[in-house]
Amino acid sequence: MANAEADMPTAEAPRKSGLKGLIIGVVLAALLGGGGFYAVWSGLILGQNDNEETYAAPVVPGLPDIGFVPITPILVSLGPGTNAKHLRFHAQLEVEKAYLKDVEMLLPRVVDVLNSYLRAIEPAELEEPGALTMIRSQMLRRAQIVTGEGRVRDLLIMEFVLN
Prior knowledge:
The protein has 2 domains: about 20-60; about 65-160, Tetrahydropterin Synthase, Chain A (2-Layer Sandwich). The protein is of the alpha+beta class. It has helices at about 1-5, 20-40, 100-105, 105-120, 125, 130-145, and strands spanning about 65-70, 75, 85-95, 150-160. Strands 1, 2, 3 and 4 form a 4-stranded antiparallel β-sheet that branches. Helix 4 runs antiparallel to helix 6 (about 130-145). Strand 2 and strand 3 (about 85-95) form a beta hairpin.
């Protein structure tokens, strides 16, 4: 028994709470985080080359030399087989400024071709989800044929209403 009493402590030693280690860890993390932030922010790490300008203004290219020719609004009556009675269409042609007068002179022909095309489309085709993209490409191609290659850059649809 004497040996058993010697192994058992008479009074329990107080446990250390570890608060000192936690405070040291938080302080070190804050210092290392701040140092890392400063190193990246100042360019010491992952920085830019010295020969590059840090605050250079972005280079913006100039706008192309274009103009727009409005097409007379077109109203097409739709036949039976559709929920809508009329198609109201309005667009503009994107044209190089050098050809602006030429395209304006040929505008009655362009309107005639577009009007004929819109009247030839089946009413059921107009209600399909991808119809506008297909119609736009077909009309652009027809306008390019009438005005001559390279004059009309794009056809912009301003209004396409089925009512």
